[in-house]
Amino acid sequence: MLHSNKKQDGDGRVGTAALGGVGSKSGRSGKRSRPPRMSDSQEGKIKLAFFLTLIGVTLTVLGMGTEFWVELSQPKHLRNNQTCEMAHYGLWKSCVRTLWVSDIDPERESCGPAELHGESNCTFFKFYTSGENAIIFKKTTEKSLHIAGAMLALLSLFLMIMGSVCITMSLSKSVPFFLKPATICFVFSGILVLLSIIVFHQSVLALLASDHSIPLHHELSWSVACLGSAGAILIFGGLMFLLLSLPYNPLEKCFRQQSSSDA
After folding, report:
1. Can you list the alpha helix ranges (DSSP code H) found in 88-178?
2. Are 75 and 49 within 8 A, CB to CB?
3. Helices assigned H by DSSP within 174-247
4. Nearest C-alpha neighbor of 251 from the set 33, 3, 45
5. Hey, CA dihedral for 229, 235, 237, 239, is it positive or negative?
6. 170 Cβ neighbours under 8 A, 6+ residues apart
């Protein structure tokens, strides 16, 4: 009896040790490595790059919401010597303005610019709703190109929102994991903004080629300048996020290798 009790006690200690070992192994395996945290200097650089990209987002929204993408000007003495007509439009609506010839620069041959005081008649494009083309000075818009440019601009705006969400999450959680998705969003949004300008300009050229009865002078307006600047800023900001997401600074590494080779 005494011998059997000692054996049971020994078996119990062995079982308890085995269970303890299994528990410690499972506890070690259950621990996950924490993602690397951002330093204060890195977080400051990310905030600076985010502020830069927000400037690009603001310029994009400003340019998309206006009707000053292009100005179409008739010769200022086409109708009479007192008034002339010009038009300007963007992605969503067009405006026809009647200006006084006396207010126009004498050295300017065409009517305009649009900033001068005059009567304005604005209408929204109907090809987003009923599919009708717009007619401006007997010239017909190319709605497929116009809609394509608008869709590219809206898609770029969606990518900007997604990139901003990624940066906000990265700063709130203090982890650089979301910087690479933000890089993709901002770089592609900048490219889409520039593509929307190109497609829109092609739609303007198609409009001018649709009829030649009235000679028109066309020039891209300040909204396109805002969008071009926004596209460049967004691409540059996205590349900055890419550099900040790397575990090392490639410029510092290059300088360090160069200094070591010189030594």
Report:
1. 143-173
2. no
3. 179-209, 222-245
4. 45
5. negative
6. 38, 46, 176, 177, 178, 179, 182
Q: Could you tell me which of 78, 59, 64, 110 has the C-alpha nearest to residue 219?
A: 110
Are the C-beta atoms of residues 227 and 197 closer than 8 Å to each other? Answer: yes
Long-range CB contacts for residues 113-117, cutoff 8 Å, separation at least 24: 113/71, 114/68, 114/71, 114/86, 114/88, 114/221
What confidence tens digit (pLDDT) does each residue in 84-103 have? Answer: 899 999 999 999 999 999 88
- To the nearest 10°, report the CA torsion of 109, 112, 113, 119: 170
The amino acid present at 165, given as its one-letter code, is: V
List, for residues 125-153, the tens digit of each pLDDT value: 988 888 888 899 889 988 899 999 999 99
* Tokens read off for 219: 């020039």
- Cβ atoms within 10 Å of 169's Cβ, excluding its own: 14
